[in-house]
Amino acid sequence: MTKADSLERAIHERVMLVPYDPAWPGRFAAERARLLGRFPDTLRGVEHIGSTAVPGLPAKPIIDLMAGVDSLADADALMAPLLESGYVTSAEFNAALTDRRWLMRHAEGHRTHHLHLVVHDGRLWRERLAFRDALRADPALAERYALLKAELAARHPDDREAYTRAKGHFVQGVLGPACCG
Fold it and tell me: Are 45 and 33 in contact (CB under 8 A)?
């Protein structure tokens, strides 16, 4: 498989959940160390977010990393070096984002990592950590989220954006209106 074929397959990969894999934290730690080693003066922190960061939770087998930067201008300045270090992105997709920048890594036609560059300790940073921590702290909440994700993956298997949007109401319900401002 060529690099272009792998990217094309990864971009159009179906939404498929798998059982929790205890190797996920180690994969996060390895990528976190690689990023902090490469960009020690720019990244203000790298956190494991998303379902792979919640022990026991089924997930798409993609490690979500959230890297803090001082500003979106700093995030934009990191894009070219991140592309040189194995990430890919969509300029069109990022142009539509007002609060973050997004990149992914892939191998053999499968997404392996998503990297979200956000303002360190900004609203999005705090929201994503609060949601992750709520799921980690409450097994019943995590189970309700797992059931919702399974339903949405069945409803939107070929539309990752619809799948992600459909989870938004649940996330906002967990965070509440006073969260993270």
Answer: no
Q: Where are the domains of the chain?
A: 3-175
The string of pLDDT tens digits covering residues 35-79 is 999 999 999 999 999 999 999 999 999 999 999 999 999 999 999
How many other CB atoms are there within 10 angstroms of residue 55's CB atom?
Answer: 13
Does the global pTM surpass 0.90?
yes
Distance CA 80, CA 175 (A): 34
174: left (phi over 0), alpha (psi -120 to 50) or beta: alpha
CA dihedral 41, 42, 44, 46 (to 10 degrees): -110
**Of 134, 139, 65, residue with least CA distance to 147:** 139
Q: Say which CATH topology domain 3-175 has.
A: Beta Polymerase; domain 2 (3.30.460)
